[in-house]
């Protein structure tokens, strides 16, 4: 990830394609955003993730489940909580449009 970004999108597994497309669109819109994507969770890179989350202002965990499993792992391993979770659990994959729409909805609360 770009370590000086103000916002970081976090995902794992099948969310990569939609997150990558959303990242490109957001960067083209002038947002200072980066992506941290995990192919594997274990062993968890605690120091790396802690370092990244300490530098960004907002973090959004994008997950294909109902409970925010990765966000919980991040908090358990680093002690840091993500700003918000964007969850989808209807069996359909994420689209970049959905991610951006949800990010902007949540961003209104935190002045993105």
TrEMBL record:
InterPro entries documented for this protein: PFOR_II, Pyruvate:ferred/Flavod_OxRd, Transketo_C/PFOR_II
GO biological process terms held by the UniProt record: response to oxidative stress
Matching Pfam families: PFOR_II
Gene3D superfamilies (alphabetical): 3.40.50.920
Start and end residues of each Pyruvate:ferredoxin oxidoreductase core domain: 5-96
PANTHER family documented for this protein: 2-OXOGLUTARATE OXIDOREDUCTASE SUBUNIT KORA, PYRUVATE-FLAVODOXIN OXIDOREDUCTASE-RELATED
Name of the featured protein: Pyruvate:ferredoxin oxidoreductase core domain-containing protein
Biological classification of the source: unclassified sequences, metagenomes, ecological metagenomes
């Amino acid at each position: 990830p770009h370590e000086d970004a103000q916002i970081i999108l976090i995902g794992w597994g099948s969310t990569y394609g939609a997150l990558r497309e959303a990242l490109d669109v957001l960067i083209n819109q002038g947002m200072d955003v980066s992506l941290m994507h995990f192919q594997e969770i274990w062993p968890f890179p605690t120091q790396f993730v802690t370092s990244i989350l300490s530098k960004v202002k907002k973090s959004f965990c994008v997950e294909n489940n109902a409970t925010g499993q990765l966000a919980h792992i991040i908090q358990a391993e680093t002690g840091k909580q993500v700003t918000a979770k964007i969850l989808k659990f209807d069996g359909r994959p994420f689209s970049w449009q959905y991610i951006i729409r949800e990010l902007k909805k949540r961003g209104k609360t935190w002045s993105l």
